[in-house]
TrEMBL record:
Annotated Gene3D superfamilies: Mannose-Binding Protein A, subunit A (3.10.100.10)
Example of a GO MF term: carbohydrate binding
Pfam families, alphabetized: Lectin_C
Keywords: Coiled coil, Disulfide bond, Lectin
Listed name of the protein: C-type lectin domain-containing protein
Classification via CDD domains: CLECT_DC-SIGN_like
SUPFAM superfamilies: C-type lectin-like
Boundaries of every C-type lectin domain copy: 166-278
InterPro entries per record: C-type_lectin-like, C-type_lectin-like/link_sf, C-type_lectin/snaclec_domain, C-type_lectin_CS, CD209-like_CTLD, CTDL_fold
Length: 281
């Protein structure tokens, strides 16, 4: 098959063929004019070859034209398809760009929602902690209020019963005399115990009472090991000179005091004296 690139050559052959045909026609007219009776056999063969070649050239030209038209049509079709594909591509690209933008917007929106949710969660947890702290504070204040109410009630109660308040404790001096053990029982029945003296101020406080009184100090469990009624060891001492001494070999296991300074004295527990009770608030 002849390609489109051979079209100029075919055109040249076709033009040569037309020239040959024209010359042959002129020759025929000349022969007729000169009345040549008959053509030579070789001339007939040449005419046949020329005519055949001319027909072949015409056929080739026709085929070339048809092929060119077909290729041109295919080219136009491909061009249209290419342009259509370009338009489709551009549309798809635009659509993808729009989808990308929408995706990015949705991502930002989601991130904002997540950030807001996290912020709200933190605020909620912080409010929970604040509420718990407030609740704990309220509970503490409620307990303190109840404690203060009880303290006030006890304060009023003990004052009405003749007790004296001093330095965080109530004190009550008896109006009768009993043994050390009976004196302690009386204090315990009143929700108190015999007085414990662990400071100079308390020792000075007892100076207002002029009678000899029992306090809550004894070595009845172990001789020479003085303990207070709450089980604590003796640390602060206000013994009278020469005391304790188990005077005249008596079993002096309990302590009473007088109104003057350094007046502690060990005494026989079965002797009867006034006593002083102490109730710590």
């Amino acid at each position: 098959m002849v390609s489109l690139e051979d079209e100029p050559e075919i055109s040249s052959i076709y033009e040569n063929f037309e020239d040959v045909s024209a010359r042959n026609a002129a020759s025929r007219r000349s022969v007729e004019d000169f009345k040549v009776p008959a053509a030579a056999p070789g001339m007939k063969m040449n005419r046949l070859v020329v005519v055949s070649f001319g027909l072949l050239c015409i056929l080739q030209a026709t085929l070339n034209i048809s092929l060119r038209l077909t290729l041109f049509s295919q080219k136009n079709s491909l061009t249209e398809e290419r342009d259509e594909m370009k338009r489709i591509y551009l549309d798809l690209e635009a659509g993808c760009n729009n989808l990308t933008e929408e995706r990015d917007d949705l991502k930002r929106t989601l991130e904002n929602y997540v950030s807001q949710q996290n912020s709200l969660t933190e605020e909620r947890d912080e409010m929970k902690r604040i509420n718990l702290d407030l609740e704990a504070s309220c509970n503490i204040l409620t307990e303190e209020n109840h404690g203060l109410k009880r303290t006030v009630e006890e304060y009023v109660h003990y004052l009405q019963q003749g007790w004296v308040y001093f330095s965080g404790s109530f004190y009550r001096i008896s109006s009768t005399m009993k043994t050390w053990q009976d004196s302690r029982k009386d204090c315990q029945q009143r929700g108190a115990d015999l007085m414990i003296i662990d400071s100079q101020e308390e020792q000075d406080f007892t100076g207002q009472y002029k009678n000899r009184i029992w306090i809550g100090l004894t070595d009845r469990d172990t001789e020479g090991e003085w303990k207070w009624v709450d089980g604590t060891q003796l640390t602060t001492r206000f013994w009278h000179s020469g005391e304790p001494n188990n005077y005249q070999n008596q079993n002096e296991d309990c302590v009473n005091i007088n109104h003057y300074q350094n007046s502690w004295n060990d005494e026989v527990c079965e002797n009867e004296y006034f006593w002083i009770c102490e109730k710590k608030m």
